[in-house]
Design a protein that fits this description.
heterodimer; A: 80 residues; alpha+beta; two-stranded antiparallel ribbon; 2 helices; B: OB fold (Dihydrolipoamide Acetyltransferase, E2P); five-stranded mixed barrel
């Protein structure tokens, strides 16, 4: 589920920016349309990423000198 | 018994041996009292009334035995800590004292290690100790097994001490607390793998937001080594966060329990691990009312493990709703924008220019024509005005030509000169001078010539003045001389009355004083008192007339 794309925070912040810009009407019409499309794209993307994500519980164990490493899925905890 | 205790405590008079030496069991029977020792049953606590005195070692041994039999294996003594010394060996030496007395104490390392709180000068404690004598020095001491602070539990005191220390060091400062991310993708949980805490956390997350990755680091949460486990887990997660794909938050906690059970979360090790953590830490220790040091240091404190999970993850439905709200807002903003533009467009279209351009153009043309007409009119008017003004100026210019001016002035000058001449003439005629000739002469003379004439006149006048002055002086001198003569004459009138006379030569009027001053035939004038007569000198007679 590792995504190197924009985090939700960043995406929503950008969408917020766009919404404000359009509301204030300071930008030209054509650019407003472009920004609107970008904003909608961002939110759609966030929704897709979120829906695709899954709950994943893994055990961590001590590794190396001071490190930690995953040690497999946790099955012995009942999360239902 | 009670009485005895008090005596010992306050250090009253030296107690006698309240025992029967016969019944004393020495630990080293080989160095038992030598034969014939006066530890006889008869001695009611009296030694020294014997054949030979005790050695110091014997005496100390007896004391030791006496103390050990007198006191139970463990007693409790209350007092203030003082003179605390902790050499490297790990044992603690200190003095316990009250207002009037003190006693030396020692706490072996094994006991000292169980101390939960720091020892400080003046701290009031209850020492759980046994009494013993250090024979080589003849010193009795309390061998302390356990120290409990007075008024408050050992753990409470330790808690207070650590809280104060870390508080001063800024561990609890609000500015250093970080906010939790709004949309976490990966989190780590440090807790026991058994117990309610982990189950509560995982169930809560699964319910609310089953969209993240959770790393669980199982640790001991109480007992030996638990604080090291917990601190170590937090540190390791920090070290490995990059390789784990980024950790957004750590939940560290455990279920409820006694203060002893929760003690690991009050340790300095855990506090430091949380303080040093680069990842925000949520503490979830025990129940609502439990507050541990970890809670104070953490970025966020959760009352329970469930609460921690709720703080860390949002509700999925809310997030999706949030997205929808955003989309709605964007659409709404866009619609409004379009609407605004449309309105502007239609209002622009309504403008007459767009509707009927040719009429507008014609109107403008008309306006231009009108303006041109007015301009022409104005121009003509202005030209006329200028022309008439020019004409006026020309006329005036002609009238004030230099030649005209000059002629005017010249005639004026002539008039004035004529006036002057007539006036001067009248003045001069009144003075009786031959004005005309002079006037003509003077008028025709240049100023320089007039000046020269003036100078000449002046010198002529000067000469006349001189002559007049000298004549005057002469007259005056004459007057003066005659006045002098008269003066003289009047002076000798008396003499003349007596018969004397004054004879003067007529020739020059010289008074004759001597006969030799005359010559025959000289006329002389003789003055008498009342007149004078003239005579002629016949001859000079010798003077013997008078000598006789």
């Amino acid at each position: 589920m590792a995504d190197a794309e924009l985090s939700f925070e960043a995406a929503l912040a950008r969408a917020e920016e766009i919404a404000t810009a359009i509301e204030q009407g300071k930008v030209g019409l054509e650019e407003s349309i472009q920004q609107f499309e970008e904003g909608m794209r961002l939110i759609k993307h966030c929704r897709e990423v979120l829906c695709a994500a899954e709950l994943c519980i893994e055990k961590l164990e001590a590794a190396g000198m001071d490190g930690a490493a995953p040690a497999g899925e946790m099955r012995d905890v009942d999360v239902s | 018994m009670k009485r005895r205790r008090r005596e010992i405590k306050s250090g009253g008079e030296t107690p006698r041996l309240p025992f029967d030496p016969d019944r004393v069991r020495s630990p080293e029977p080989s160095i038992a009292k030598p034969a014939g020792e006066a530890v006889s049953a008869s001695a009611q606590g009296q030694t020294g009334v014997t054949e030979s005195p005790l050695t110091v070692s014997q005496f100390n041994r007896i004391i030791k035995a006496a103390l050990q039999s007198r006191f139970p294996a463990e007693i409790r003594v209350i007092g203030e800590l003082s003179n605390i010394s902790r050499p490297s060996g790990g044992h603690i030496y200190f003095t316990l004292k009250d207002s009037t007395s003190e006693v030396r104490c020692v706490m072996w390392r094994s006991s000292a290690q169980t101390l939960r709180f720091d020892l400080s000068e003046g701290l009031e404690v209850v020492a759980h100790a046994s009494v013993d004598v250090y024979e080589p020095r003849g010193q009795y001491q309390l061998y302390v097994r356990k120290l409990a602070p007075c008024g408050v539990g050992a753990l409470e005191l330790a808690f207070q001490q650590l809280k104060e220390k870390l508080g001063r060091a800024g561990f609890f400062d609000v500015d250093r607390k970080r906010p939790l991310p709004a949309y976490p993708r990966t989190i780590a949980v440090v807790t026991s793998l058994t117990g309610a805490a982990i189950r509560d956390i995982l169930q809560t997350i699964a319910r609310r937001y089953p969209k993240i990755r959770i790393f669980v680091f199982g640790v001991r949460v109480q007992g030996e080594g638990s604080s090291e486990d917990i601190a170590g887990a937090i540190r390791r997660i920090n070290c490995a966060r990059a390789s784990l794909g980024g950790i957004d938050a750590i939940i560290a906690g455990r279920g409820g329990g006694s203060i002893e059970d929760l003690w690991a979360f009050n340790s300095e090790a855990v506090a430091r691990a949380i303080y040093d953590s680069q990842i925000p830490v949520v503490s979830a220790v025990g129940h609502e009312v439990d507050f541990t040091i970890a809670d104070f240091v953490a970025d966020v404190r959760a009352a329970t493990p469930t609460a921690a999970a709720e703080l860390v993850v949002p509700v999925l439905a809310d997030v999706l709703h949030n997205f929808a709200v955003f989309e709605h807002r964007l659409r709404h903003a866009m619609r409004r924008r379009m609407e605004t533009t449309r309105l502007r467009l239609s209002s622009v279209e309504r403008v007459s220019w767009f509707r009927d351009p040719s009429t507008q153009v014609r109107r403008l043309h008309q306006g231009i024509d009108e303006i041109v007409g007015r301009l022409k009119l104005a121009k003509a008017r202005r030209l006329n005005k200028l022309r008439s003004r020019l004409h006026q100026l020309e006329t005036r210019m002609m009238q004030s030509r230099p030649s005209v001016q000059l002629a005017k002035r010249q005639s004026r000058l002539e008039r004035i000169s004529r006036h002057l001449f007539r006036g001067a003439e009248a003045v001069l005629r009144r003075k009786g001078v031959r004005a005309r000739g002079m006037e003509i002469r003077m008028a025709s003379l240049s100023p320089r010539r007039q000046f020269e004439l003036g100078v000449l006149q002046l010198s002529q006048l000067g000469g006349r003045l001189d002559r007049a002055m000298s004549r005057y002086f002469q007259d005056q001198t004459g007057i003066l001389a005659s006045l002098d003569a008269r003066l003289r004459a009047s002076g000798y009138e008396q003499v003349l009355r007596r018969g004397f006379t004054i004879t003067r030569r007529v020739r020059d009027g010289q008074v004759i004083r001597s006969a030799v001053e005359t010559r025959p035939d000289d006329f002389v004038l003789t003055q008498t008192a009342d007149g004078q007569f003239r005579s002629r000198v016949v001859d000079e007679l010798p003077s013997e007339i008078f000598d006789a």
